Amino acid sequence: MHGLVNRALQCFLRDTYGAQAWAEIARAAGAPEGGFESMLRYDDALTLRLISCAATALDRPAEAVLEDLGTYLVSHPRRQV
After folding, report:
1. How would residue 81 be classed by pLDDT, with cut points 50, 70 and 90?
2. Cα 54 from Cα 25, distance rounded (Å)
3. Which one, of 58, 34, 18, lies nearest residue 7 by Cα?
4. What is the CATH number for 59?
5. Closest to 20 (Cα-Cα) out of 61, 67, 57
6. Are the C-beta atoms of residues 65 and 20 closer than 8 Å to each other?
7. Which residue, 6, 14, 16, 29, could crosslink 49 as a Cys pair with Cβ 3.0–4.6 Å?
8. InterPro entries, alphabetically (predicted)?
């Protein structure tokens, strides 16, 4: 998966739910400690784990997390991800 997708998910979760929530989700998913680089490629399985771990941690369906991510992206068009 392109790093831009993972970076967008990272920014969304951190900005919406806080740094602590992001840290817990990232740790559970096995994400890199320093976060994601937008221009690198990552294993698709890692992206799926991030979504799954976020859904579990937030007690929301994965589809709702993805929909909220989309809303975040269109409502923050100038945000540097």
Report:
1. low
2. 6
3. 34
4. 3.90.1520.10
5. 57
6. no
7. 29
8. H-NOX_domain_sf, Heme_NO-bd, NO_sig/Golgi_transp_ligand-bd
